[in-house]
Amino acid sequence: MRKDEGEKKKGGSRGVFIVLVSLVLGFAGGVVWLNGEVAGAEEVLEQSQQDYDQMKRWQRSILKIRAEQKKSGGRSNVKPPDDINGIQGYLSSKAIQSKISSKMIETRSWEKSTTLKGWTEYYWSVRITGKKDDLLSRASIVKFLQRVEHERPYLKVKNLIVDYKEGDILKASIVISYLKKDS
Question: Which pLDDT band, with edges at 50, 70 and 90, does 62 fall under?
């Protein structure tokens, strides 16, 4: 009988040992998993800090530009034209500089509108049509609009309609306006 009791004690200590080993392995697995989660969280935090720093630099540059505009009274050195007829040629030349083929662009002459009392609005319709051989690119349209508004700040894009099919730009219709105070 005594041998049976000794064997029972031996089996009981084995069970306790197995339970302890599984607990230790579970604890070690939990520590490894948590270390992986911490590493992932650190990467996300570092990326967020970089994004925040980039945003701060961007905001500072905007503030500098606005401060310069405020000092100059918000006016640029470019004076509005006395003769409105030159704008149509200017728009065509800027389109060509923006790598839009002269065959693709059609600029209609200016039209006059007196919607506001004391102000006259002039506007030009620009239609850019892509061909199968010569497709329009989004970058060329953006460059065109940036050049026009940067070089001649009194010209503003009033309407922009882009027709596209499966990522290809088929045509763009742009209305550019100039608001002039009546003298």
Answer: confident
> Which CATH number does 86-181 carry?
3.30.70.60
Decide: residue 122, CB within 10 A, 0-12 exposed, 13-18 middle, 19+ buried.
Answer: middle
Nearest to 101 by CA among 72, 141, 157: 141
Q: Which of 64-73, 90-99, 107-116 has the highest mean pLDDT?
A: 90-99
3-state secondary structure string across the chain: CHHHHHHHHHHHHHHHHHHHHHHHHHHHHHHHHHHHHHHHHHHHHHHHHHHHHHHHHHHHHHHHHHHHHHHCCCCCCCCCCCCCCHHHHHHHHHHHHCCCCCCCEEECCCEEECCCCCEEEEEEEEEEECCCCCCECHHHHHHHHHHHHHHCCCCEEEEEEEEEECCEEEEEEEEEEEEEECC
Most confident of 66-75, 108-117, 129-138: 129-138
Beta-bridge partner residues of 92: none
* Per-residue pLDDT tens digits for 112-129: 776 677 778 888 888 888
Question: Model pTM greater than 0.70?
Answer: no
What is the total residue count of the chain?
Answer: 183
Q: What share of the chain is helix, strand, coil (3-state, %, to 5)?
A: 50, 25, 25
